[in-house]
Here is the input.
Amino acid sequence: MAHDQIEGLDAQLLKRKLRITKSPCDVKANVGQRTLKAFCSNDYLGLANHPDLINALSQGAERYGVGSGASHLISGHSIAHELLEKKLAECESKHIPNARALFFSTGYLANINAITGLARLAASGDVSIYSARLNHASIIDGVRLASAQTKAVVTLFDHQNLDSLQEALQKDTHSLKLLVTDGVFSMDGDLAPVKRLIEIAQEYDALLLIDDAHGFGILGKYGHGILEQFDVCSERIVYIGTLGKAAGVSGAFICSGAQFIEWLIQKGRPYIYSTATPPAIAHTLLSSLNLIEGDEGAARRKQLNRLIQIWQTEMNFSSWEKSQSSTPIQPVILGSNANALLAAKLLDEAGYWIPAIRPPTVPEGSSRLRITFSANHSENDLRELMQTLKMIEQTVERKHQS
Here is the structure.
């Protein structure tokens, strides 16, 4: 059965393949016997191979060892975890009153823990969840699990047009209403309308969960994410940030009012039943946060914004669709799986690593190249890529027409 199903995926041009790298995460990657120019990583600030973080990880391992030994609620909660959580809460304290943070090994776990845990605040059947239609898979799975556990009513909404969301909320009589959205949408690079969503949450007595996986580290003056970017503050916010992307290391966190975090400690099954992340990772992340908030982080964000400006101003396609993104995520929409795969293949032959993104990661008919920038890319790197893309577009379109 599995063989037939896999063959079916292959026939639909939806089968995925692993590629093995032999080098640190950076703008050049050793893949097989070749060195490719990588424009596909989420290491937006270029910190994943930073010498300060390599040293911090080594020091953390010397101080704490390489494992935590148990879940946080047994014996795995180290002083390194505690210091990290206090620092993360401090990052968001201007935007979330009485902020407290909770550290997780992955963003996937953080989303599932937050959504399922918050859904248990009300009696079964007395919960409604409103999820942005283009949310990340971890949110989708968290919403599905919460719905199965609590009989929550789930409604999808368009984050670019909130009229239907408001109409649904006007009729909602559930005691707990949870709005859930990405901060930066991972496949399009656009931002959620956070200010308006907070206003709606206030008007209809709802909580607002924001997964800022692709915003933390790159948005805001000090890299504190989308809440800092929009200068908002609300006790209704449940904020999730990822630490394996712009922060360059690993893990994620939930930050909210202390009472919500305490509830998630008591009722969040992924937190209760997962072995704690090695303390050495938490120790390394403290160094990463110092870089992000300091002069070097500011300089790296400035370089990123320069690359984004060049791309948005100078990159023009004749038939492919470019997103109007203000983030390092710059998708190019080709439409069909075949065209996206061909473009990725031609890019590979030209020495670039930019995989084709296909359904179910993106909606049917919107297969794309998901191009991402790193602060370690130079302006010359970007302009060389732009020239290559223009030539590849012509090749793909000629093949499509023939």
Notes: The first strand starts at residue 28 and ends at 31. The mean pLDDT is 95. The chain has two domains: 17-46+295-401, 51-293.
